[in-house]
């Protein structure tokens, strides 16, 4: 990488995997999501990955006012951190709902899933009692028969939307086949410029998060694109988060941490904030003489403007 020992830390603040019952520290309203994003940036995250939630129930939301409140509060205090807006959304959302924030807020970076998977979150139902909201158990039980759809048509339409509004894609790859999908899109002229891949590992219904899985994803991307022709990052879900991130560092990649992906700071110890997870990642990086990129350095790597 051009910036030598520097690596990008992306903080994924809150997504559609975890719910209010699972941790009292999960931010579930716009004010708390924005506050945790700002604190994660202070801790060393150059990118904050944003999902919105319903302020009353904490259910994943596609409402523009929810995204607008979060983005506005972040920008009011910090106009430097890179905001990455999700187009993954939440289970059951249409593609129109998942992408509606893009033309309104025109983020510099936005996620784009490049393949469909099963999304098996139903085992979580047996791990918790005393659910806080009526939506939670049906939401997770429903994933027994849920597919997270990201068809070629969906991807192509979203790429067109990104081009129209000058948004750089963060390509979310949950399995090795998704890298081949990305190669097809590249070969057919539907993507150009720098490719930024995020390896999303350890989801029930997609690829695992073992060291061998990380290496297979990296080797496949190297073979299809050339080792120096793309930017990549990786994380593992749950207890795999820090092992996968650390391996990513050694292989030349970047890292993502956050309460969207993992609720625990260490075994049995809930993280009290996204910033705590970023702090831990910064400490791990420091042990091996890596340092986190600033937002300015991350923009240089991506080739994007402020």
Topology:
Elements: E1 6-7, E2 9-14, H1 30-43, E3 47-50, E4 52-53, E5 60-61, H2 64-77, E6 82-85, H3 95-99, H4 101-105, E7 109-113, E8 117-118, H5 136-141, E9 147-148, H6 152-164, E10 168-173, H7 176-187, E11 196-201, H8 211-225, E12 231-236, H9 241-250, E13 254-257, E14 264-266, E15 269-270, H10 274-287, E16 291-292, H11 295-302
Parallel strand pairs: 1-16, 2-3, 2-13, 3-6, 6-7, 7-10, 10-11, 11-12, 12-13
Antiparallel strand pairs: 4-5, 8-9, 14-15
Helix pairs in contact: 1-2, 1-10, 7-8
Give the averaged pLDDT, no decimals: 96
Q: How many E strands?
A: 16
Radius of gyration: 18 Å
**Strand neighbour order, sheet with most strands:** 2-3-6-7-10-11-12-13
Helix content: 25-40%
| SSE topology string | EEHEEEHEHHEEHEHEHEHEHEEEHEH
Explain what the structure shows.
β12 (231-236), α9 and β13 form a beta-alpha-beta unit. The strands form five sheets. An eight-stranded parallel barrel has the order 2-3-6-7-10-11-12-13, surrounded by eight helices. It contains eleven helices and 16 strands. The radius of gyration is 18 Å and the shape is globular. The protein has 306 residues and is of the alpha/beta class. It starts with 5 loop residues before the first strand and ends with a helix. 38% of the residues lie in helices and 19% in strands. α1 runs parallel beside α2. The model has no long low-confidence stretch (mean pLDDT 96). It has helices at residues 30-43, 64-77, 95-99, 101-105, 136-141, 152-164, 176-187, 211-225, 241-250, 274-287, 295-302, and strands at residues 6-7, 9-14, 47-50, 52-53, 60-61, 82-85, 109-113, 117-118, 147-148, 168-173, 196-201, 231-236, 254-257, 264-266, 269-270, 291-292.
